[in-house]
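hi!! sorry for the late reply, been swamped w classes. u asked for the two structures so here they r. pasted raw, havent cleaned anything up. first the sequence of the first protein and right below it the tokens
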Amino acid sequence: MAEDRVDSGDDIEETAADCDLLRASVGEHVPGVTTVTLDRPDARNALNAQLRAELKDVVAAIEDSGVRVVVLT
């Protein structure tokens, strides 16, 4: 169960570190909250194949954590 997991956010941040078009921070301001920031300003953050793939990887890492809230910016 998600409640039983202890999440340091390392998996999420490691996954995001491999991404070129987005960033993720875990619990910087509020524990259990992850902020995912799209970083493709030249295209107004339009989803292309690479950004979709990166977002999918980060969401998968989030699903395997104790994060309860995701803020997408």
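now the second protein. again sequence first, tokens right under
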Amino acid sequence: MVSKFRALKVATALRTVDLLIRYTPLFAHKDAPPNVLNLAGGGDFTTVGDANIAALVSLADLSAGDDTLEIGCGIARNAYALHRKFGDSVTYAGFDVMKFCISWSNKYFGADKPNYSFRYSNMTNSMYNPSGEIAPSEYDFEYPDASFDLVFATSVFTHMQEPDFYHFVNEALRVLRPNGRFYFTAFLWDDDAERATKSGEAAFSFKYQAQDSRLDNREVPDAAVAHSRSKLLAHLDTLGGQPPLIINGGWRRKINKQFQDCVLIRKAQ
């Protein structure tokens, strides 16, 4: 009953905000969304966005001329940073389950930028879209095969259950061109993560098992999810291509570095 009541409250609040964005000037901002709408995790909107794009440049070879897709684009934090860095020399498509984020991004950021587009995807998520109609494991990306040079997702798979996660990995690789790059952040569960959680060094406990993944909060299962590193590697091995680059994040020891684990996959030719 508590979970259903919470879901109703969240859905009502999100719907109200979306209507206010679409039909009133209440949230009109040009350089960045108002702070009250910035739900894209901690940190300064501009600083974090610039850091994410810098990571894509250094780790995923993001460069002018790339066609890019962002999974879980939120309220255009990375799109703003991408435009600051590359302007219209790249193309950008983003999709998200939070309708108000898409409404705001299209109205106040993308309206005068034809190379940048935002799409609402009505998927279920216990954190961000509890009234969604499509299970993520059944959602096929609304883009043709081999459309992008780079697909990326920051702090998205940390809020996604195991079947949904693997479906999204497959879909990301589908829409990538040969030699394309897929960069994402995640919490990966392995022996080191287990030691860190048991010792209390980690930022999360991940006490609850869900298939081969781990949950931090059983009441809100999408709040924080850690996925099995070994299962991910085995899954990617079946798809061919190079072994992924994986960089452990600071969440394991509460240290001041890239908080989430980083993964870079290069699609086979």
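hope this helps!! also noticed smth abt the second:
The first strand starts at residue 67 and ends at 71.
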